Amino acid sequence: MAGHGAQEHPHGAERLCAAGDRVYSRAVRRGRVPRQDAEPVPCLLELALLHPDPDDMDWLVPTSPQEVMTRLLRGVHDEVSASQRRVGSAVEAFEWYADLGRLLQSPAGTEGTAIRVLDGLSRIQAAMDEATQACTTQVLTVQPGGIRREHELSEGLHRALALRGRGVRMRDLYTHVARHGQGLLNYLELMGDAVEARTLDEVIDRLILFDRTVAFIPANTDRTMALELRHPALVAYLVTVFERLWRLAIPLTAPLPATGIEGISHREQSIAALLAEGHQDAVIAERLGISVRTARAHIARLSETLGAASRTQLGVRIAQAGLDGSPRASAAPVILPGRESPTAR
User: Fold this and answer.
1) Which CATH class is domain 115-251?
2) How many Cβ atoms from other residues are within 10 Å of residue 299's Cβ?
3) Angle between the N-to-C axes of helices 292-306 and 311-320, in degrees from 0 to 180, rounded to the nearest 10
4) Which of 202, 335, 329 has the alpha carbon at shortest distance from 269?
5) Which of 12-21, 81-90, 133-142 has the lowest mean pLDDT?
6) What class does CATH assign to 257-345?
7) Shortest CA distance to 131 belongs to which of 159, 155, 172?
8) How far is CA 210 from the centre of its chain?
9) What is the pLDDT of residues 282-312, one digit of tens each?
């Protein structure tokens, strides 16, 4: 799309083509336009003058003229000695749009919009880089999935190093499975005491919080779209979610607690609890950050350990052993099939 738009619309945001001018003007007046209206003018999306409506992805909402003008002038300022005429044309162009969109002005004391849809990896990376540069005290992240691959760790390494250099503290939440990845251990060693990491059986979807003022969350399953959140109530809610998960998590430097049942690992205990809730193998694998094949191997070992011949019987055995999360009488030891007495470890 970028190449197509560049050939038919060779201009910048300060001087729109006639078709782009019509669509953007309509969007400013009405507050949004159908996505199909912008298909003939991809320049509006490429220049971030329109972006998807968070409430209905089939509609596009305009970036406020004031925000566009601010962004343009910020870039122009760096090359003002050679581009003073561009500054004047940008102001002149968007003053007219500003008169159309008074209702879209941000509340006093805020910058930008409360919820912004970032469509495409390049826009996500640019927004993340901007938030990193503005961050001064703390970053909180939730990293779902299993073992962190090298490319996943390296793609954000430049931001992490920049934050560490400014004395920013970072706290990261991972799943227990991530403990087995050497890449994560190497990353934490490189970052030193700037990063504190903890793990849980399962975590929420990816979340990144900068200075408790701006948050980023995925907007689709393949993570090619994201939401940038600056609404104080939304950000405060996400901070609360993170802090509660953090209190439940186990420091990466500490060992996982024993289950108290011989032959049952911590991961198998987690799988047993999810099985008791009625989840299928694929869901269990996704929530714990492991492959479906690995999940089924653990379920098979769990069945063997508990002496279950079927999935239904396994559910009964899980409940009997107290692996479903329900309280178990402390005076009643867990006797597994084929064992005379339990051995706590």
Assistant:
1) alpha beta
2) 19
3) 70
4) 202
5) 81-90
6) mainly alpha
7) 159
8) 12
9) 888 777 777 888 888 888 888 887 888 888 8
